[in-house]
Amino acid sequence: MIDLYYWATPNGHKITLFLEEAGLPYRLIPVNIGAGDQFQPDFLKIAPNNRIPAIVDTAPADGGAPLSLFESGAILLYLADKTGRFIPADLRGRNEALQWLFWQMGGLGPMAGQNHHFGTYAPEKLPYAIERYVKETARLYAVLDRHLADRDFIVDGQYSIADMACYPWIVPHERQQQRLEDFPHLKRWFDAIAARPATQRAYGRAAEVNPAGTPTVNEASRKVLFGQDATTIRR
């Protein structure tokens, strides 16, 4: 059994995508990041960076005590190795998947996240910051679009953790001021993943933790989400 500490964010969706595709039994444990649940002591024991997602594998392959992990990329890689699925077994294929996983973790996710922040959530609209991150998001979309020109998935011929990492960050493309029609190879890839039954099941589970679809970011949650500094960790 996998315990998944989750909220309905792009990084949270990555892990439900994998678990639904692999058919691994798992339990969703909501962590309402807008309400500050990520600062609860029990959660911090699992995720010291006070971010979701995190998992606890109650039956790790070594037969030892339950194993906890934080960071969505590390979790995807762990689950792929645990199941032997969604990552190529050969040297070249595995490393192609990993380089695109790291591309998402170091580029697409952080840049799109800043796009969301300055374009949607920042109390003051700063034209320079908005333009900076909209343009960088577009550049990253173009990188992925070009890569997908001659293949169905990021790793040629195989749906993998690289696709699962990237897809949730493309879902909010309208908020990022991007038109998928401008990236035809990426759009084809995006539509194919959206149509997968496991994708639909994974996104359907978001309603279980937030049935009303209440926005995570509101006036009450802004300080919790955007007011953190070193004292947040030291308290």
TrEMBL record:
Sections of the chain in a coiled coil: none
CDD domains cross-referenced by the UniProt entry: GST_C_YfcG_like, GST_N_Ure2p_like
Gene3D superfamilies noted in UniProt: 1.20.1050.10, Glutaredoxin
Residue ranges of domain GST C-terminal in the record: 90-216
Protein name: Thiol:disulfide oxidoreductase
Transmembrane segments: none
Record InterPro entries: Glutathione-S-Trfase_C-like, Glutathione-S-Trfase_C_sf, Glutathione_S-Trfase, Glutathione_S-Trfase_N, GST_C, Thioredoxin-like_sf
Species for this entry: Aquabacterium olei
Family: Belongs to the GST superfamily.
Domain GST N-terminal: residue ranges: 1-87
